[in-house]
Each structure stands twice: as C-alpha cells, then as structure tokens.
Amino acid sequence: MSGHSKWATIKHRKGAADKARGKLFAKLIRQVEVAAREGGGDLEANATLRTMYQKARDNSVPLDTIERAIKRGTGELEGVSYEQVTYEGYAPGGVAMFVDVLTDNRNRTGSEIRSLFTRAGGSLAEPGAVAWQFERKGVVVVPAVVPEPDGSAAEGTVPDEDELILVALDAGAEDVEREGDTWRVTAAAGDTMAVREAITAAGIAVTSADLTYAPQNLIELTSASEAKQVMAVLDALDDHDDVQGVYANFDISDSLLEAIAG
After folding, report:
1. Which structural domains are found in the chain, ordered by start?
2. Does the pTM of the predicted model rise above 0.90?
3. Beta strand residue intervals within 128-223, DSSP E
C-alpha cells in the first residue's frame, strides 16, 4: 500500500475522520453531483455514479441528501456548477503528488493550492509533470479480521485468503493484497462496483469501495524528518474544502509511520 493510503488509515483510526464528518459529507455530495452531471443520473448506466453513491452510503450520508445531489447534477434541481480540475506537484524528497479537485472557481482554487504546496514545503508543477505516474483504479476494502461491534463493515463474513481471491478475480479484480486488518482488492475503475457486488453476493463483508489514483512506482521514505515534511504537504492539501483526494507515490514502513503519527 502506498504511503498516502497508510496515512489515511491511521488518521481514520485515530478519529480524525469522525471530527471532520461535516467536511467529508460535503465532499461526498459534491462527488455524487458531478458524477451525475457527467454521466447521467441512472445508477445502472453510470458506473462512476454507482461508485460515488455507494461511497456516500458507506459513510452514512442520508439517502435523500444523495438523491438531491443527483438531481442537481442532472439539472432537475438548481445548484452550483462544479468543475473537475487536477493539480500536480512535489513534496520534499521528490515525492510526486496528484491532487483531484472539484471547484466552482478555478482561479481561486488554483491560487490556494499553489499557496498550500509552497507553505508546506512543496512545489506546484506544470500539468503533465507527474500525472503519468498515476493510474485510475478502483479499490474495494474487505475486513481481514472480525470488525469491532461499531465497525463500518457491512454485514457478512470475514473471508480467508483463498475464498476472497477466488470471488474477486472471478468478478474481474486485478489484485488482492493483505494490509494489516484489511484486504485491499484492486480493479479497473469501471469494474469497481461489479467486484464489490460479487464480493457481497458471496456473503463477504465489505468496508468500502472507492476510486483512486494508484502510483505506478514508489519512493521509499526512511527519514523521520523527511516523512514529516511529506505528511505536512499531504495534510494541508487534503484539508482544503475543494480537494477530493490527494495521491502520492511514496512508501513508508509501518513502524516509521506510527512513530511520526504519535
């Protein structure tokens, strides 16, 4: 798992996600709205919308709120028009960062993203400078151990490795990898929901399904000071209201990550 994914997992475990629930809801609703605008409001015909819809449901966004977002996206209800923009840059150590944004004001957001990179010790790059290092993928997260009573996994069993691999690969998944207390199932972006549905149909619990930009090659971080600088850039960008996701091509050992997180 790349370093940015590990960092997101640690922050969630420490409760940061709960503290930012209002901001998370706003980002998820915006993603649903844009997906509906770009591909229509039919969940069966719009794979991206199906993924964003389920992601919102996984995070307890109310159904009527999601449905209103779809209607705003299709023009049935009046709403703000958001534009999808990506920004590329570098954190200390040459770590490449790809930033996915939905904004109603490109000039304002562009200026703010540049400022965030600079203040956190990174630098904004020209379009295309790092995008080639990332590939659009779908990720389905499955618990590898029995969840806590208040865990977010859907109902179902916790599978063994052979069971999950058989079901996932038959459904079109590309890879199944163990990451601590979870399995990470990777698929082509358009196959994400089909893989998720096959897993749940087999009676296996699913924690989440999402679209991501996966780095093709990773830079190993071994210095605590450099790792902290990279995390500072990552956190600053991720905290921006218009930023939907930050993706980076670094890796870091679990022990070093836990040390700097503490």
Report:
1. 14-74 (1.10.10.200), 83-133+216-261 (3.30.70.980), 134-214 (3.30.70.980)
2. no
3. 134-143, 175-179, 182-188, 208-215, 219-221
